[in-house]
Amino acid sequence: MRYAQAAERGKFAFLFLPDFAGMSKAPEQEAPMLTLDPMMTLAAIARGTERIGLVATGSTTFNEPYNTARQFKTLDVMSHGRAGWNAVTTSDPLVAANYGQEIAPRPERYERAHETIQIAQALWGSWEKDAWIKDPATSRFADADKIQPINLQGKHVASRGPLPIPPSEQGQPVVFQAGGGDYGLGLAGRYANAVIGATFTIEDAKAQRDAIRKAAVDAGRNPDEIKFFAGVMPAIAGSKREALDRRVALGREVFPARVPYLGAMLGLPLDVAQIDEPLTPEQLEAARPSRSIPGHSGPTKSRARAGAFGTSWPTA
Ligand SMILES: Cc1cc2nc3c(=O)[nH]c(=O)nc-3n(C[C@H](O)[C@H](O)[C@H](O)COP(=O)(O)O)c2cc1C
Q1: Which of 26, 148, 237, 293 is least surrounded by Cβ atoms within 10 Å, i.e. has the fewest?
Q2: In whole angstroms, what is the distance from residue 263 CA to residue 242 CA?
Q3: The CATH fold of domain 2-178
Q4: Domain segments of the chain: what residues?
Q5: pLDDT tens, 163-181?
Q6: What pTM was estimated for this model as a whole?
Q7: Residue with the nearest Cα to atom 5 of ligand 1?
Q8: What is the dihedral of CA 259, 204, 82, 45, to 10 degrees?
Q9: Pocket perturbation via mutation, ligand 1, pick of 14, 37, 91 by most ligand atoms within 8 A of CB
């Protein structure tokens, strides 16, 4: 709550919570990315803030669209129109195992994602703007003609609707997408209001933004409808020197905990005790870039930007 209030005072546009429904593989070195359910956390934060946007990540694979639509709409009403949904397909087998499942191939997960977002948006739109009358004088609560079932049946998910929730002040929660790859771009192009990119250089950020704008055009949308947020991890202090010192000090605390992640990215088991030593020639020989390294094009042509276990997604 304190961080959310500080971010609001600092004029941040929104708070972005990742979601990883599982426990870290290396709990001794690596703290869990998040320990509390993001929707419940944001519901609490909504009460202690007034303006900042509240964006939570939610899986399209391990949630029913009705639940997702209901929860985000609830948060939207509670927060007076500040909710956003970062729709992710979830690619980690550890998460799948927590739902008694295995990770389905990417085409299937994205097919379900398309259906899930379409159903969620239809449910959010199941009340027309002026359907809620709430007029004690005439005893009319709502205009039934303006509240319609959606009756959508997909291959993976379905819903009848309508949602029992009147429109929020912003109409509907906004949809975020994060991460690249052809499938991710297809999703962003069709539905996203905003995209968060894991970006490491200005050129890379520009290329990602261009790709998203093109995806919007390919989907028949105006590219200005999608806002692109390049993920940055700032260090803030009174002067540049102090900010750099602060960054280095933070790094000193964080680096040892990130050694297993670095190992996963290089395909090597790395030891924290080795942190100040160069890799041995044997280790260099054996190193293989993970498919999840930003910018690494895997054999499927898909550029998975993040999503491997242990990835530190920037939180805006
Ligand atoms: C900024 C950013 C934040 C992300 N946050 C999450 C997250 O919270 N949970 C998650 O499962 N994936 C997250 N991802 C991963 C992607 O949404 C996506 O799942 C990943 O790139 C793998 O894609 P795939 O489903 O095509 O295999 C994030 C990616 C980025 C770039």
Answers
A1: 237
A2: 31
A3: TIM Barrel (3.20.20)
A4: 2-178, 244-316
A5: 999 999 999 999 999 977 8
A6: 0.84
A7: 18
A8: 20
A9: 91
